[in-house]
Amino acid sequence: MTGLKISEVAEKSNVNIETVRYYEKRQLIPEPPRTRAGYRIFSLEDVDRIKFIKRSQELGFTLNEIKQLISISDDKTQVNSEEVLQYSVQKIDEIEAQIKDLEKIKKTLQDLTVQCSGSRSSDGRCPIITSLTGGDSHE
Amino acid sequence: MTGLKISEVAEKSNVNIETVRYYEKRQLIPEPPRTRAGYRIFSLEDVDRIKFIKRSQELGFTLNEIKQLISISDDKTQVNSEEVLQYSVQKIDEIEAQIKDLEKIKKTLQDLTVQCSGSRSSDGRCPIITSLTGGDSHE
DNA sequence: CTTGACTTTGTACCTAAGTACAGGGAGGAT
DNA sequence: ATCCTCCCTGTACTTAGGTACAAAGTCAAG
């Protein structure tokens, strides 16, 4: 009686129906049992798992990483905590690297726009363009 | 005599040969003239343009945006500077938003790992997993 | 003249995370 | 019995920026 149809599970977990089927195919959720007619029957645990997937994605994990995360957390040995921790620390490092790259890009772009605003009255050529075009400055 | 073959232009601008053809198809570089046999003939300006594209990509511009940038800079009216400036300012905003998102993700992940390291001796369940799985905390 | 390195075109494949659609079956209300 | 809505499968398409490959033509050296 607690069985949910695909549209129900999709709605409860705020994803598209196709996404549910896609997660099943990617083996991120277990293969659900079926009615005699072939309809999938989901449980509230499936809803929780999909929400877990979505929250993990927001934290920057890919579906493959999430699959790993799930298998670690399903495996209830005492060591699992260690592995997940390592995963997360690594992910934090990756995010930090991304932030650094973006900061650098931002700085470059800001420098260029400052130059551009400053020298506008001279010849009409934007320093952003000329700096990108000509001067083989960084290689 | 200054004509460059595709492999030469690719090497000089540090991209794959296929990438050069791809940029031509995407109209990021002008259609080069051909020899009677159909071989493309490039110039040093093409090398500069490809380098421009690559540098712009590093600054976070997409190929479509770069195409715009090129058409603005080719159009030598006095207003071009203004447009490029606006483009860049907008891009800076986008980058800032991205950085903010990443900072937030990083903070969440850090909080979780701190909790995880702290409470490791209790029951072996990692707080990262349990916090993602159960507690419908944010929605 | 043959070999090897290069070029041409067109098409298909790649990652990531889905979305869309076609063609068919099922369930329940009228 | 019919209608509407839902579900099934399988396949193709999407974005972005390329990469890879096959079959064929070209060029220069030996």
Automatic annotation (TrEMBL), chains A, B:
Q: Tell me, what is one Gene Ontology molecular-function annotation carried by this entry?
A: DNA-binding transcription factor activity
Domain of life of the source = Bacteria
Q: Does the keyword DNA-binding apply?
A: yes
Q: Which UniProt keywords apply?
A: Coiled coil, DNA-binding, Transcription, Transcription regulation
Alphabetized Gene3D superfamilies for the sequence: 1.10.1660.10
Coiled-coil residues: 85-115
Recorded hits in PROSITE patterns, A to Z, give:
HTH_MERR_1 (PS00552), HTH_MERR_2 (PS50937)
Specify one Pfam family. MerR_1
Q: Transmembrane ranges?
A: none
HTH merR-type domain location, by residue? Answer: 3-72
Q: Has UniProt tagged this entry with the keyword Glycoprotein?
A: no
Q: What is this protein called?
A: MerR family transcriptional regulator, mercuric resistance operon regulatory protein
What species was this sequence derived from? Alkalibacterium pelagium
